[in-house]
Hints:
Blueprint: E1 2-3, E2 6-7, H1 15-25, E3 31-33, H2 43-55, E4 58-60, H3 65-84, H4 96-116, E5 122-126, H5 133-140, E6 145-149, H6 157-160, H7 166-173, E7 178-181, H8 184-197, E8 201-203, E9 206-209, E10 212-218, H9 225-229, H10 233-245, E11 250-258, H11 264-277, E12 285-293, H12 299-319, E13 327-330, H13 336-345, E14 348-351, H14 360-368, E15 375-379, E16 392-394, H15 399-410, H16 414-430, H17 433-446, H18 461-470, E17 474-478, H19 498-509, E18 513-518, H20 523-530, E19 536-539, E20 544-546, E21 553-554, H21 562-574, E22 580-583, E23 587-591, H22 597-615, E24 620-624, E25 627-631, H23 637-647, E26 653-658, H24 661-668, E27 675-679, E28 688-690, H25 693-703, H26 708-714
Parallel strand pairs: 3-4, 5-6, 6-7, 7-10, 11-12, 11-14, 12-13, 14-15, 15-16, 17-18, 17-26, 18-19, 26-27, 27-28
Antiparallel strand pairs: 1-2, 8-9, 9-10, 19-20, 20-21, 22-23, 23-25, 24-25
Residues 13-16, 18-19, 151-152, 221, 255-257, 290, 292, 333-334, 339, 356-361, 364 line the site of adenosine-5'-diphosphate-glucose (ADQ).
Amino acid sequence: MAHGDEVRWRLSPGGLAAALRGVHADADSLWVGFAGDAGKLPEESRRRFDAELADKRLISVPLTPSELGLYYDGFSNGVLWPLFHYLLDKVRFEASNEWRAYRTVNERFARVVAEQVRPGDAVWVHDYHLALVPGLLRAQREDIRVGFFLHVPWPSSDVYRILPQREEILRSLLTADLIGLHTEAYRHNFIHSAANVLDVDVGVDSVTFQDRTVRVGVYPIGIDVARFEQQNPAIDDAMKHIVSGTPNKKRILGVDRLDYTKGIPRRLLALGRLLEREPALKSTVHFIQLAVPTREKVEAYADLRRSVNELVGRINSQHGSPTGSPLQLLYRSVGDHELLALYRTADVMLVTPLRDGMNLVAKEYVASRVSNDGVLVLSEFAGAAAELDAALTVNPYDLDAVARTIRCALSMTRDEQMVRMRRLRDRVRQATADLWARDFTNDLEQTRPVPRSSLSVPGDLDTLVERVTAAPSRVLLLDYDGTLAPIAPLPVLARPDPALRELLRALAALAGAETHIVSGRPPEVLEDWLGGLPLWLHAEHGVRSRAPGAPWTARAETPPFLERAVELLERHARSTPGALVEKKSSSVAFHYRRSELHLAEARVRAIRNELAQTFGNTVEVLEGHKVLEVKTPGITKANVVEEVVARHTTRPLLFAAGDDRTDEDMFSALAEGDVSVRVGPGITRARYRVATVPEFRELLERLLFVPDVVALNAS
Ligand code: ADQ
């Protein structure tokens, strides 16, 4: 902090800074952040400041006051903070300048970091203020590991989806190698948000988006336990001072940043209600609320301070007496000794946030209770509640329940206090800040960065084009959806555009070549969309086929289970919004691309169970990309490959392309010299990969021309 021409160092009151301080102290690390406004310092002080920063291995990213206003107060704390804490009425939705500044500042952070890192380094990005940094860094550096930790809750998918910038933020985060969250619930929310906002594949602890899989881990942050267990005469003196100032009273304590998420007004209301109900408590309890002001430029915070002042005034004037007031409010930051003295003299600690990523105050209170007594009242909406199961948990929105719980805390026997507190302390001592940082960084070290380029494998596309065009005869086996045409929201919307029809016509007309469409679609659809072209058509993953202009033939009869399977899937689709059933002549598909992931997953499990019970192994259940298909066992796209090979006396070169699991059957039936192309991400046995449908179509265009250089080589 710059003050006139000198610099004052001040510890940040936030939990994040507290937890990372220890990690930075003994690691080979650089800490990049905003160190306050040093721009106005005179030259000499500025130099001293820079030297001190360098000495502490800190790098300060400069921000102008206007950037700070828009980026920090405006977007980070005016949009993301309230939204991630479910306080939607506080979110500023018209925030385009703020968003622009957010992006600019994130770009600056990414640039500074990119200049510092060496290949193989790990970068750990913290919190919602820097959510675009992973994406921006990744765009510049493929050779580093990137981890991201979110210190606040990841909200439920329905709340996250409200954010207008939801895609940009997720796209950035999904370029990281590891994402860390405090609780299992936040992980669940994150994965579901990704699935509902972007077209991703998800696992229990991972999300795959485009070519990249990011691990999503749960790392509950802890505290530096030794700091809170320390014994010191200065602490004892401060304790004596507090006790003598509040003789014969039960002390109740609240310690928070003055933030509307911390639930201070409701806490005060609950205390007021308790005093109304039990006037005798007025002379026997004393409540101290320590509130350190933060983000004072954000309007909601100024409003909060006003309403807290009013409430305290109202309750004290109602319940106070000439000898004292039941509530005491301190707007300031206190040092360790005073903080510890407050924790140790508090019979009851109230931690009642409306939402909180973790809440370190709860853990600090527990750690400081070296006497093993005291009662922690904890909001069930704090991340800490997932770990601190021996606390008295409350719903902070239910004032009666909070009042009742405080009452119960005040009268808890010392025996019960000690049973609970010992359990709480065991937990807090096991999961420390150091362990948290070590777990995250170890896991980050273990992720293997997979550069995008290595996935575009192994031969480059020029070699592919040369090989295919140089072959004397070739057969193209092309999947349709997701390969030749982008996946459409509804299957009927994927009709070929005129350019695609022209491309297929030109390919089919090439000398020495056959062009096959090998699709999961029913014959009628292929006939309707592509029937007029001189193509070989294969429907329903190879169950039905026809040569150009010839009638359709079937490799299998209409299966006996079909009608019942259709009924079964339709029944499930009726109770799965967004799902639809596609009936084919020998199979039936359940599409759930537009359904909510959580529901779809449960539904697919239920369908699989019911199919197994009803049909045993007389049906085959295939799972593709957000589709489940019930079909006759044994017939796959590989049958098409086998038949093509059998029909030719001289084996042509086969060129097969596709985008999902059913195409892998085709690839596995190819021979060594054939060519296979996977369109899009995912694990594949294909030899080549292109990222998108347009790129694949460009590749096909190139097959239409035999380049001069190839012609020369061939001659
Ligand atoms: P915060 O919202 O800042 O952190 P919290 O975890 O409670 O919340 O940490 C606050 C820290 O500030 C504590 O270490 C506390 O001792 C200190 N503090 C508060 N008031 C103080 C005062 N008056 N004087 C001195 N110290 C004071 C964010 C998330 C949390 C998450 C942390 C860490 O919002 O949910 O737990 O990051 O991930």
